[in-house]
Amino acid sequence: MLVSVSENDDYAFRVFYDLYYRSVFRFAYYFLRNREACGEVVSNVFVAVWKSRVALRRIENIDAYLYVVARNEANRYLKESRTRRRCLSFEEIPISLIDRNSPPPHSEDAPDSRLIEAEVEELVRRLINDLPERCRTVFLLNRQEGLSSREIAEALSLSESTVRVQIKIAVDRIVAGIRTHYPDLKLVSLLLFLFTARF
Question: With a threshold of 0.85, does the pTM exceed it?
Fold first, then answer.
C-alpha cells in the first residue's frame, strides 16, 4: 500500500488515511487534549505525508514515522497557540478494561467480581489520569497502542531506558493506588489485570 501511495495512487492514500486516522488522532490527543485541535493537527499530518509520499517506500516502521510527524505537528500547533486553553476529557480516550460483549456491571446476573472489576476500572482511569504527562503518554502508548519501548522512544525522542523507567513508574503507581483501595486483592491478580487489559 505504501508503494502505491508513493506512486500518487489516490485510492491507496484514502485506504491509508482510513487505516491510520484513529491511531494518529489518539496520539495527537496525548499532547493537545483538545479534539478540535487534534482534528486540525491530524489533517496537517496527512497533508505532510502526502507531500512527502515519494519517501514512503523507504519507511520501515510506518507507525513510528506517523507518530514522529504527529508529534512535530502537535508541537508546532502548541507553539503557535500557547494561549489556547487546554482541557482534558479522559473519557474521550478509548479505554477497554471490560469485555464490551459482557453484561453491564449492574445487571441482575452480574457477579460480585464484575462489580469489583468495574470499580477497579474506574479507579485505574483516575490513577492513569493523575500520572505526570510524559509518564501517562508513555504508559498509554505501550498499553493502549501496543508500541514497544523502542518505538515509543523513537516517536517521542526519548531513550529506551527512559521509556522503560516511565512505564515502571506508571505501573508502580497504579498498583500502589489499587492496593490502597483494595488491599485484599492479590498482587498476581493485580499484575494480570494491568498487563492483560487494553487501556
Answer: no
Q: What's the rounded Cα separation, in Å, for the pair 81 and 100?
A: 38
Nine-digit cell string for 140: 498509554
Distance from first CA to last CA of the chain, Å, rounded? 29
Which has the closest alpha carbon to 146: 173, 125, 177, 167?
167
**Buried b / exposed e across 32-52, counting CB within 10 Å, b at 16+?**
bbbeebbeebbebbbeebeee
pLDDT digits (tens, 9 = 90+) for 82-117: 644 444 343 433 444 333 344 444 444 444 556 666
**3-state SS class at 198:** strand
Cell numbers at 198, concatenated: 487494553
Cα 84 to Cα 49, 71, 87, distances in angstroms:
26, 18, 10
